[in-house]
Design a protein that fits this description.
The chain folds into two domains: 87 residues, Arc Repressor Mutant, subunit A; 197 residues, D-Maltodextrin-Binding Protein, domain 2 (3-Layer(aba) Sandwich). Helices cover 46% and strands 23% of the residues. It is built from twelve helices and eleven strands. Strands 3, 4, 5, 6, 9, 10 and 11 form a seven-stranded mixed sheet that branches. It has a two-stranded antiparallel ribbon with strand order 1-2. A two-stranded parallel ribbon has the order 7-8. It is rod-shaped and about 105 Å long.
């Protein structure tokens, strides 16, 4: 039994003629007749009464017709659902991002979603090492990370593309003694108290160690850290682009201050993806939105 045979049953029942059904189906009458005969042998029943007066359904044929209509309708519905799912799936992306991209990604999502009404995005925030380890296992479509090219080249299951270069800075509130400075030096930062994001990249942790900073709090709640910085005399390490357009930075409640040191304080931003994932137009558009935002293009 196959779907074509069921379609033939429905068409013959509607047309009450094999020849008319065959014409409508664009196949030969003998082809239709053979298919029905084969189905009748398989089911061990007669579906149609054949006489000079035409074709009529048997009692068993009435049941076959009813179930054939039901099955074909279900098949049609399934095809429509799969088509809708496929279209949605193409526009759905599972994206991971390192903490430095948290606020960048919010602004990017506004722009991207505004241009792609049907797009859906699942966003996960993790540290770069966790993202790289989970990239394939978690089925991420792409991820935004902070890393060196050498580190990424060690991975044999990812594609990577350079996005931008970020300068390491600090962020302070108005109560900080550093707030009025245009830049800070290593001496300024010595023994200062800091708060750190739980998944801060290793370079930030190395800086805290280098400057002999006391880490008074670690948290994965970004807003908690922001509030403590606003109200206290502590700071945290950020990239110059991380909170560039954050409302409290724009209003002056928070201030991003560069560290006056060597090129060691620059880090590279990358977009990575599993080599098994195809490069779609949706991904390319999203990546362009990220690059534009990092480079100040709106």
């Amino acid at each position: 039994m196959n779907f074509e045979q069921l379609e033939y049953v429905v068409s013959i029942a509607n047309e009450k003629s094999i020849s008319k059904a065959a014409k409508k189906l664009h196949i030969s009458p003998s082809g239709v007749s053979q298919a029905i005969s084969q189905l009748e042998r398989e089911l061990e029943i007669n579906i149609f009464n054949r006489s000079r007066g035409g074709i009529t359904l048997t009692i068993e044929g009435e049941l076959v017709l009813s179930r054939s209509v039901e099955i074909l309708n279900n098949l049609k519905e399934l095809k429509e659902q799969l088509s809708d799912f496929k279209e949605t799936r193409v526009k759905h992306m599972k994206i991971a991002c390192a903490p430095t991209f948290t606020y960048t990604i919010h602004d990017v999502l506004k722009k991207y979603s505004g241009n792609n009404n049907g797009a859906t995005i699942e966003l996960i925030e993790q540290g770069t090492p966790q993202i790289i380890n989970n990239l394939t296992k978690e089925d991420y479509d792409l991820a935004l990370v902070v890393s060196s090219k050498a580190e990424l080249e060690k991975e044999n299951n990812i594609n990577f593309e350079f996005l931008s270069k970020g300068k390491v800075c600090i962020i302070v509130g108005k109560n900080s003694p550093l707030y009025e400075l245009d830049y800070v030096t290593a001496e300024d930062l010595l023994y200062q108290k800091v708060v750190m994001y739980t998944f801060s990249n290793k370079n930030f942790l190395q800086l805290a160690k280098k400057f002999k900073n006391e880490i008074v709090l670690k948290s994965n709640r970004t807003m908690t850290l922001i509030e403590i910085i606003k109200e206290g005399r502590v700071f945290t390490f950020v990239h110059n682009t991380t909170l560039k357009y954050f409302p409290e930075v724009l209003s002056g409640e928070l201030k991003i201050i560069p560290i006056k040191e060597t090129d060691y304080f620059y880090q590279d931003f990358w977009v990575i993806s599993p080599i098994t994932k195809e490069n779609t137009s949706d991904k390319n558009e999203f990546i362009k939105c990220v690059k534009d935002h990092l480079n100040g293009i709106f």
